[in-house]
From TrEMBL:
Domain Helicase ATP-binding residue range list: 32-205
An MF annotation (GO) of this entry: nucleic acid binding
Protein name stated in the entry: DEAD-box ATP-dependent RNA helicase RhpA
Family: Belongs to the DEAD box helicase family.
Entry annotated with the keyword Nucleotide-binding: yes
Motif extent (Q motif): 1-29
A GO CC term assigned to this protein in UniProt: cytosol
Biased composition (Low complexity): 396-413
């Protein structure tokens, strides 16, 4: 199947050809005709398989066919993070380069006035994070009464991050009659329940088993004492001559410390997390993409949406507390059918988290000790797993399903991250 066979108009096909895409991916070939036919859609696919083009291309066509650009937005794309919003905005511009449609991106962490000015000039397609969108709605700088198409990208992530109340408030501002599209790399049960109340007779597309990683990603775990993790990571950088590695930590402070340690080891590194200004986050990502730094050390703010072409390695310096986040972390490599490596440094107290990840994936992840860094701690025979000894322990909570409350130390409650805890109180206008 080719893009020509999907019913896309010539000016969109020209834009696709400029991007040098080959054949459409499975999610694209299945979703584009459904969206063009006007159906609501619940779609899931592994990260890196082309979800963005799957909804942006038909969205552009539907708006272009319905008339000339209007003053108020006709399509709204909601995303959980600033970085993902920015990247979708870039794709909207690239695919719509030959159309007269106008688009803009709004998110927090930057001034509102330039966004207000852009909205006043007129916008057909609006890409936004929930918090900043509600800021504009509250100040009456944005009219959502003409929205014809609503897209929730990474929908389950928005629910997990505590955006459910914001999303519902936004939905209440939209016209009742519209086309709704929910896209996500994973299908959570919470998202399915939410979608039941939002979608009207939706089509369901699931191009891969839920919560799976791309088959092109080689996954390995290195057991190591927690105190020696930083030294092991530096050792791997030098031994393997890594030039571009995305490294995940659980906390913002931990990301800063690790980036500083790598720098002292002669490895150019920078950190990206929610305590960084938007300008600093953008600069760090740009330096990483163009090779000015070899390591980008990130919290889970980077687990969704970052599209780095041909990223060869992802390292979990610390395993995530939520198993599904592992899928999204390692999905930054092995994109668009390319190969990649996902390496995890696993200390003894993280073994229960590793087992939770393996249960989610339905497969084992090979444990390969590195010579000279073999762990000194090993679990005694038949010793109960950490967290099973004391009900309610920290480890038990961290290994629990998604309903577990994120630890404040993760920084996922930070407004500046665009991320808030599932149990966070309703958002206060700022």
């Amino acid at each position: 199947m080719s893009f020509d066979s999907l019913g896309l108009r010539a000016d969109l096909l020209r834009a696709v050809a400029t991007q040098r895409y080959g054949r459409p991916t499975p999610i694209q070939s299945q979703a584009i005709p459904v969206i063009l036919a006007g159906h609501d859609l619940l779609a899931g696919a592994q990260t890196g398989t082309g979800k963005t083009a799957a909804f942006v291309l038909p969205l552009l066509q539907l708006l272009a066919e319905k008339g000339h650009p209007q003053r108020h937005p006709r399509a709204l794309i909601l995303t959980p993070t600033r970085e993902l919003a920015a990247q979708i905005g870039e794709r909207v511009h690239a695919y719509g380069i030959h159309l007269s449609l106008r688009s803009t991106v709004i998110f927090g962490g930057v001034g509102m006035q330039p966004q207000i000015n852009q909205l006043r000039r007129g916008v057909d397609i609006l890409v936004a994070t929930p918090g900043r969108l509600l800021d504009h709605a509250g100040q009456h700088t944005l009219d959502l009464s003409r929205i014809e198409i609503l897209v929730l990208d990474e929908a389950d992530r928005m629910l997990d991050m505590g955006f459910i109340h914001d999303v519902r408030r936004i939905i209440n501002l939209l016209p009742e009659r519209r086309q709704n599209l929910l896209f996500s790399a994973t299908y959570s049960d919470d998202m399915r329940r939410f979608s039941d109340n939002l979608l009207q007779r939706p089509k369901l597309i699931e191009v891969a088993r839920r919560n799976t990683a791309a088959e092109t990603v080689i996954q390995t775990a290195y057991p190591v004492d927690k105190a020696r993790k930083r030294d092991l990571l530096a050792h791997l950088f030098h031994r393997e001559d890594w030039q571009q590695v995305l490294v995940f930590t659980r906390t913002k402070a931990g990301a800063n410390r690790l980036a500083e340690h790598l720098g002292r080891e002669g490895i150019a590194a920078t950190a990206i997390h929610g305590n960084k200004s938007q300008a600093a986050r953008t600069r760090a990502l740009d330096e990483f993409k163009r090779g000015a730094v070899r390591a980008l050390v990130a919290t889970d703010i980077a687990a969704r949406g970052l599209d780095i072409a041909q990223l060869p390695q992802v390292v979990n310096f610390e395993l995530p507390n939520v198993a599904e986040d592992y899928v999204h972390r390692i999905g930054r490599t092995g994109r668009a059918g390319a190969g990649g490596q996902a390496l995890s440094l696993v200390s003894h107290d993280e073994m229960v988290l590793l087992k939770g990840i393996q249960r989610l994936l339905g497969r084992q992840i090979t444990l390969n000790p590195v010579v000279g860094f073999e762990p000194s701690l090993t679990p005694p025979p038949n010793d109960p797993e950490p967290g099973e000894r004391r009900r309610g322990s920290h480890v038990a909570a961290s290994a629990a399903p998604r309903r577990a409350t994120p630890s404040p130390r993760t920084g996922q409650g930070s407004r500046r991250d665009g991320q808030r805890s599932r149990t966070a109180s309703p958002r206060k206008p700022t």
